Amino acid sequence: MGLLTTAKRIASTDELDLQNVDPGTIRIDCSGAYIGNDILLRDNLIQEKRKNSINGCYVSSSESSATASSSPTPEASSEDENADGDDEEDNSSTSTASTARIPRDASNLQLAYNGSVVVDEELELPSDDYDLTKNITLPQHNSEIIHISVDIGGTLTKLVYFTKSTVNDIGGGKLHFKDFQTENFKHEALKFMIKLISKSCHREEHTPITYIMATGGGAHKFYELMTKTFRKHKLPMKIIAKDEMECLIKGLNWLITKIPNEIFTYDLVQDDTKFIAKSLQEEQDIFPYLLVNIGSGVSMIKVVGPGPEGFERIGGSSLGGGTLWGLLSLLTDAKDYNEMLEMAQRGDNENIDLLVGDIYGTNYNKIGLKANNIASSFAKVFKKLRFTNGRKLTPAEKLAQFRSEDIARSLLYSVSNNIGQIAYLQALRFNLKRIYFGGSYISGHKQTIHTLSYAVNFWSKGDMQSYFLRHEGYLGSVGAFMMGPNHESSLQEK
Question: The domain that contains 157 carries what CATH number?
C-alpha cells in the first residue's frame, strides 16, 4: 500500500502541517512492473563491462542483455539525478578531475553501436553501480507518494524511494535502492535523505516527502538523531517505526508475487544462475517457506501464509555477515565488505582448511564425503604453525605465512556452510521444502550463493530447494515502503 495525497504545494517547509497531509491508503500499482536488466551477480556486471567494450570504449548497459519486459523504461527523474549528483560532488575529492563517470541510471543506456553514450574502457564501475541494476520500473503507477523507507541494520542502512518519470506522456516511475554504512549513518544515509526530502519540498511538480517508514534496530536507535536533524533543517518529517520481521516478510512476499524475474536459483551442475521468469500467483506455490535473512547476524523465519499471523521466527545464529566482516577486518587489509568477498573469489581454501582427502587420501564414499569436502575449517593453519623450529612468532609473522585471499575463502566457506546446515535443520524440523536466502551478506556474490546452495543440497540430498532474490538486501525496506504510513498498519508512531 502506497499513498496518495492531496496536499497543496507549499511555499516553504515552515508552512507544512503534517496534520493536514493525508497519508492515504492507495496501493502502489504494480501492473507491468519489471527490472530492466538480467544482471543477477556482481560478476555479471563485470562481464557486461568487458562484453560491451568496443574499440577501446565501454558502455554500461543493462539493455545489452534480454530485458524482463518489452515495456519501455522511463527516464530517470531529475529528482533522482540531482540527489545522486549532489552525493557525487561531496565525494569528488576522492577521484581525479579527468576521470569520466558512468551515468547514474545505467539502465537507460544503449550499446555503443546503437549510437549511445560511451565511456572509457579503463573506467572502474562506481561502487553503487550494482545498486542501479536493482531499479524497478512501475510504468502504471501515477499516484503521488509522500514517503521513503529505510531499514537501519547493524552493518548496513538500506533506503528505498520512488521517483516519477519525467518523460511526457509515458507516466509511471521507478523504485530506487541505495545502501550505506550504518557506522556512518549521520554523514551518509541521513545526509542523503535530507537532500532527497529537501528537493521534494521545493519542486512544484511534485508533492513533498513528509513521512519516513523506518525499520530495523536503528529505527529506534537513531530516532532522536533523525528527529533533531530534520528539525534543524526545517523539515517537519513524521517517522513511523515498523516491526522488522513483519517488514521482511511483507517485502519478500511483495517481490516474489509482483516482480517478474525477481527469484533465481543456482544450478550446481551447470554452475550458473537461472531465473524463475514469472512472479508467483498461486498460494500453494508461495507458502510455506523458510526465510533465512543474513545480515550482521542470521534470523530464520517460518512463513505459512500472508499477514502478521502467518510467520514465526524459529531460530537464528550469531555467526553471520558481521562475523565474516569482523574476522576479515582483523586478518586482511580489505577496506570494505565487497573487497573482502572479491578477495575470497581469488583464494584457495585448500591451503587453510583440512579436507577429507587430507585425512583419507581419497573420497569417503561410505558416508558420502568427497575428497574436497572440508573436514575442519582452518585446521591446516594450526598444523603449519606448529612447526616453526621452536621460535615464537608474532601475530604479524603468523599471518604472513598465509595469503589473505585463502583466509577470506576459508572464512566465507566456514560461515556460509554453517548457515546452510542450520537452515536445512530448521527446514527439516518444520517440513519446509523452500528456503529463501535474503540479506546483504549475499550481495550478489557468486561464491556465497554457490556455497549456500551446495550446503542445502548436500544435507537435504536434493530434497530442498534454495531460492535467491535480486533485492536480497532490501526485503525490510521494501516491506516498510509497501506498508506506507497509513495509520491502521502502523506499529509505532512517534
Answer: 3.30.420.40
Q: How many residues does the chain have?
A: 494
Confidence at 53, pLDDT banded by 50, 70, 90: low
Q: Which of 109, 2, 133, 10 is nearest to 61 (CA)?
A: 109
Residue 73: phi and psi, rounded to 5, are -90, 115
Residues 96 and 197 in one domain: yes
Does residue 129 sit in the same domain as residue 170?
yes
- Together in a domain, 133 and 205: yes
pLDDT digits (tens, 9 = 90+) for 334-385: 988 888 988 999 999 999 999 999 999 999 988 889 999 999 999 999 888 8
193, 212 Cβ separation under 8 angstroms: yes
Beta strands in 289-415 (DSSP E): 289-294, 298-303, 311-317, 354-355, 374-376
* Count of CA atoms in the C-beta half-sphere (13 A) of 170: 18
Name the nearest CA neighbour of 429 among 455, 399, 460: 460
Q: Provide CB contacts within 8 A for 125, sequence distance 6+.
A: 45, 46, 49, 60, 102
Sign of CA dihedral 117, 118, 123, 129: positive
